Amino acid sequence: MSYSAGLNVLEPQVINRERIQELINSFSSIGASENGSVSRRGFSDEDIYARNFFMKTLKDLGLKIRIDTAGNIIARLDGHDNNLPPIVTGSHLDTVPKGGKYDGTLGVIAGIEIAFFLQENDIKLNRPLEIIVFADEESTMIGCKGFTGNLSVNEEDFITSNSRSIIENLSRIGGNWLEIKSAVRSKKDIFAFLELHVEQGKVLEDGGLDIGIVNGIVGQKRITVKVTGQANHAGTTPMSNRNDALLAASKIIVGIEQIAKTTSESAVATVGKLKLHPNAANVIPGEAVFTIDMRDLDEDVIGKMSLRIENLCSEIQEVTGCVVQIEPQFEVIPTKSCPKLVSSSFHESEKLGFKTGILPSKASHDSQEIGRICPMVMIFVPSRNGLSHSYKEYTSLDQCANGIEVLLNTIFSIDKNFLDKPLLI
Ligand SMILES: [Zn+2]
Fold this sequence. Notes:
Zn(2+) 1 binds at residues 92, 103, 197. It comes from uncultured Prochlorococcus marinus clone ASNC1092. The chain is of the alpha+beta class. The protein folds into two domains: 17-217 and 334-417, Zn peptidases (Aminopeptidase); 219-332, Alpha-Beta Plaits, CATH 3.30.70.360. It has helices spanning 17-28, 45-60, 105-120, 142-148, 166-172, 203-206, 245-263, 299-320, 339-351, 366-370, 397-417, and strands at residues 64-67, 73-77, 87-92, 129-134, 192-198, 211-217, 219-228, 232-233, 268-270, 274-277, 283-284, 287-296, 323-332, 335-336, 356-361, 376-381. The chain is elongated and about 85 Å long. Bound molecules: zinc ion (ZN). Zinc ion (ZN) is lined by residues 92, 103-104, 137, 197, 365.
């Protein structure tokens, strides 16, 4: 390995795998259950315990620690020129209920290990380095949204995973709702954001790849479709005289699969929730309500899919006589990674001898928000069998360490090569 910023280091050392394993063990013991799952909901006692462990570890190592008003923990290591915007890495420590050991936590552990590596080898980057734990990623995303300023001003819009308000929750972790605007940072405050994360999918494993460089995080559009027919007796109503809402909905659902497959190779569309009324074995369904979730890295592709689905709904309404109504739920625009960060991290990964691919992220992450205000890239390591949000989530120590090495070397590379050149979003 070459450490471009290793000014005082004659013999560069590799990262410490034993310590990485210890950190994985320490964090996964906080909120652990017997089957190996981890429950560390945002703002819970377990979340706070893990956050305190992070802060103590890096404070003892000599980093400056602060909590911003959005509840993000920011650990800062000085560079040669502390007036330069920092390189930032990090992820989240909160989990879904009965989640895994690696989702989010690996990106935080990577930051800790890199801080240890730099301090132990007496390496100072040109730029300051910030390691951030973003608050409540799995639920409200208050941390990353507070960081970018892209959040609702109405506290009731934040549905928390406990019964407490966002105001109370934020104060539990050292944030402050009333001052939340002071957490906002802009492009000039951050040079680049890099997040190491487990893939939570099977692309890397199926492709025999060690590392994935994420070229963007897909956008998402969610709509609800309500099909209204006529509930009637399942025995006495002849087949020729029915207004079956489920049958009409089924025709739409079958069409959605074709639309997703033919709009773009990468597009996905899912009907994941369906409710029938009256939902009885001996009654023709009078109403079917279902959701459609559409995702792609290209906003235009999502737009095209959405339009084709709307046209299909009108067609089915005409053919079946059922009334089909569409209600938009929400829309998230895609976040593209910074091309220069993608090529730098790809290059560093290949230099380390890892089989490397480029792929989009189809799940949302803190990077999705942070990438809206500054150059961003994510580095993925494989998830065994593509499983995540489960006690079965597993990434081997070697795979975790590979990701940390790529992250470290990319940080060195951009710290050296982009000292007086901008990275563009
Ligand atoms: Zn995550």
